[in-house]
Structures are given as structure tokens and as C-alpha cells.
Amino acid sequence: MAQREVIVGSRIGLHSRPAALFVKAVAEQHVKITIRKPEGAPVDARSILRVLALGAKNGETVVLEADGDGAEEALEAVATVVAEDHDDPA
Amino acid sequence: MTVVSPRLKGIGVSSGVTAGPVALMGPRPRLPDDRPAVADAEAEAAAAIAALNFIAEDLEERAAAVAMPRAAEVLEATAMIARDPSLEEGIRLATAKGEPAAWAVHRAMDHFRELLLDLGGYMAERVGDLDDVRDRTIARLLGQPMPGVPERDAPFILVADDLAPADTVTLNPERVLALVTIRGGPTSHTAILARSLGLPAVVACGEAAALGDGELVAVDGATGVIRVGITQEEVVSTNRAEELRRAARAASHGPGRTADGHAVSLLVNIGDAAGAASVAKVDAEGVGLFRTEFLYLDRQDPPSVDEQVALYTEVFKAMGGRKIVVRTLDAGADKPLPFLNPEGEPNPALGVRGLRTARRSPQVLADQLAALALAQRATGAVVWVMAPMVATVAEAKGFTDLAHEHGLTIAGVMVEIPAAALRAADLLEHADFLSIGTNDLAQYTLAVDRMAGELADLLDPWQPALLDLIRMTAEAGLAAGKSVGVCGEAAASPLLAPVLVGLGVTSLSMSASAVADVRDALAAVTLAECREMAANALAGRTTGRP
Q1: Second label for B462, Cα 20 to 30 Å away, from A31, B84, B260, B538?
Q2: ipTM
Q3: Which residues, 6+ apart, have CB-to-CB distance to B353 below 8 Å?
């Protein structure tokens, strides 16, 4: 199992636009990815509602996990989205 | 003899007259009290998921079709909820227990609804999107009309309980003739949207709940009167008369003045660079309120000085020598910014907002003033700056001193807090001018949240206590020989404008679409008549409005 710990980069946390961008990126991967807080249970990262319900704030760590072929690359791709500070949409 | 049509009365918030058929905002679907028995749980689950997918596709199609990127983003985010794989799990759990499709959707959504509500703050705001998806899906499953703004072939008068931000971003102004809401107030989303689109609008009209779909009505967005039971001929004649009036309005020009020549500057409120073009179009004397929040919204960090200079320069150039009053960043309350406002304030309208954010982040204000000064020097524009949410003389002095140090020679403050109005004379020892923000001043004087629709009558700008504070501020300005303007929504009312002038206000700033009407209203009365109207309004003899 591939695993990645990432610190949430967006000032507003993993909600609204950052959460939507993350879920969109996850949907583009070919492996199943889960996300959890370090002490929490993993949830399906394709679910915008579950990602929002994590309530992950700026500076908090989340754990991404995936299995199978290309798991490392997939985690790499989506971890970047979590770590980035999503700026002005314009 | 003319037959008098029955009239409904609400609060007119965006002037203009129009007539046409009513289209009712689709109500929320209701689950029937009797829950049907389920024969095939698997079929119910499949129906629920098919309905969710249908709603998602519909939202995605609309997202692709809308021109505004902001509207597309709202629709896409909502579609993403309808596509959420976790809903399927919840639905299957519910159908396995014998719930029919629509009930299962409700159950599955409720779970997440509570999770998000428990998180509070930003997360809880997404509950509205969740409810939208839930209501659409259930309506589809039960064969009920779709909730939200209806789709019609011909333009209509939209009648709604109130409009949510998600409704307003997707509203097609070419399809909608006017807005009527049962709840809402003069500063609600509906009112602000209507004015920005130039659509007539009436809010807080409880009687509108009785209007039927397709019924012909005429809406007067200035007086708040809705004529019902009119004929198709009356619809045509009303709209023809309005067309003529609009043509006359388009030809209306020149500086604002009363019938006897007392000058009143007519200015425009703008919120971005695009708005700057409207100033010349309506022949206004300048901009009385340039809201700068758009530069800061949807960002994690404040914009750089260079970025600000580029934008201010563009706006200042568009002024063509006219004056522009710039309001420094007004963050907080209903428009919080992650880098400025503390999270979880129990009462943000009374918290760290407006100029108060500079106590925590002085550099953001210093950068903005530096950028404004650079853009002013680059363009030679006539730039006035003012700070929002000033309460004390010390704050007024602190801000105006800072602006002067940056080389911005004309610096004033807004009067939105009763304390500032009561001490207007003292503020004017430091401030070069005052600008009254009537929306917030009403909120703080009457102790009513601007978004509290059921208390809209208390936010009425005709409240004598509010007019008293405007009078005190204006009189302090006259005594000091300094300008006192009004830049709240009250300035956009052709009925209230003469009263404000009678109270001693020297300039009125409003949305561009209101300028011609206000210019005409002032041209029809003398200064003495304005003063008499003001005295009547202060005495409460006009009981709110004429």
C-alpha cells in the first residue's frame, strides 16, 4: 500500500474550491484513493461530501493511501493538489 | 371610467415598471405523508441513482452553457455533489430497509447534511448546495415541478419566497422582466442583484404569496406597488409607456440639480473595472463609491502592490477627469477574507471588519494606499479615499493621516456606525469629507441584521431615527464646509433623494441604472420643497414613505 502524508496548503482548508479541485484530480486517477486524518478512518477520496466532512483545515496533515499499479504516481499527482495554495480562480 | 386593479404593496428596491406573466419559483418538493410500500428494493435504488445522474447531467449542461465563470463554478460544484459515490451507499442502505427511492435520497442526504452542519462555518454554508441537489432529485422522482428558477419560453416576472445566491448567479436577465419576493429586505441578495441588472424589483411583499403562475401583473420597482388582474392590453400599454420612459431616460443628462438650480452631485457606485465604463454612459459626475473588495475575494493572499496599481490605473483612466471616491478594503461580516478576518466570530457584523482589520494587518491597508497613490500619480485622476466602518475620532484621524502621508490629499471616512454620525463634527476636524453608508447605518441604528428578511420593515431607509443621524452628519458637513454624500441604497430611490437633499446631503451615489430617475426627481422639486419633505419625513408624518 502506497501512503503519503500531506499538509493542507489552502488557507481556507480543504473545502469549497480546493476540495472540488482535489476530488476532480482523484477522479482522473486509475486507482482507488482514500483520504483520512492521521487518527481517523479512511474515506473514499472521490466523494466530495466525505472530503468536505473531514473538515481538514490549513496546516493540518491528511493521509492519502492507494493500492495497485501506479499507486505512487497517482498519490503524487493528488498530493500536489492538497499541498498547493489555491489562489485566485480568475 | 377606468377600472382600478387590485394592488399589492411591498418595498420597491430597484426602480422601473414592467408588466407580464408571473412565473412562480419552483417550491421545494414535499415527501407525501403516505410512504408507498416497496416491492423491489433494487429497482428503487436504481431509480434514485438514475435521478441523481439526471440532475448531475442537467447541472453540467447548464454549467457549460452559462457565460459567467462564477456561475459555471457554482453549477459544477453542485453537480459534483449529485455525482458523489457515497450517496449511492447511503441510498442502498435505505432502500434495503424498505425506503422508496425519494425517501432513500432524503435519508442519504440527511446524513451528510448533519455532518456538515456540525462542522459549522464555511462547511455549513455548503448545506445549501446539498439541499438544492436533494430537492431537484426528489422532485424528479416524484414527478413534481423542478424547484428553482423556472424555465419558460417567454420572459416572465419571477415571484419567489426569496432568492439564494445560487439562484441569482444563474438567473438569465433576458428571461426575467422583474423580481418579486415575499421575504427579503432592501439590502437582500435579490435587491442587490436586481439593481446590478437594472431589473425592477419589489421585496417583502407578503401578499405576493397568493399570486398564481401565469397571472398577469404590473410591477413598479420604485413605489413597490404590484397591480394584479390586468389585461393583456394593459401589459402591452404598460410596457410601451416604460419603453418611452426609458428612451427619455437614456437622453437624460447633465449635472444633478433641483428645479431652482441647487447642485447635487450624482455619482455612481462601482465594484470593478467594468463598472467604470457606466459612469460616462449615464453622464454621472464621477464615482461616489469604488468598492475594492473584488481585488481580494477568492484569494488566499492579498494582491501585490504592482497588481493593484495596474488595476487602479485602468479604472482611473476610464474616469476621464471625473472624480472617483475609493473605499479601502471592506472585509468582514458578510464578506470575510481568509487572510484578514478571524474565523468563528460569534457576531461578525460587530466584529473585526472594515478599517478594524488594519489593527491586525496594517500592511494590507498600507499597501492599498501606496498602490492608490501610485495609480493616482500615474494618471493624474481626481482620487478621494475613504475608510469603511469608522467609529471614533481616533480612527478617523489615524486613517486620514495615513492617507495624507501616502500623498492622497483628499481622505475621508464613511459614516455607517451611529457613533460616527453622533460625532460627525469631530470627525470632520480630520476627515476631508464624509460618506454615509445607509445600509449599514440602518443595520446598526435599528439593530437589525441586513439579511434578516422578516425584519425588513425596520431596515426601511425612511425610519426617522436613521434620517436623524443623516441630518446630524449633513449639518456637521455644512458647518465645516465639507462634502457629505450618501452612497447607500437610499440614494438610489427617486422618492428619498429629495429628502436626503433636504437634510443637507451634497452628493448621491447609486447604481448607474438609477441615475436618470434620481436626476429627474431632483429636477422636479425646489430646494425649499426638499427641505419641507425632509421635515415631514423627520416628523414621521410620512409614516415611512409617501
Answers
A1: B260
A2: 0.90
A3: B330, B331, B332, B333, B341, B388, B389
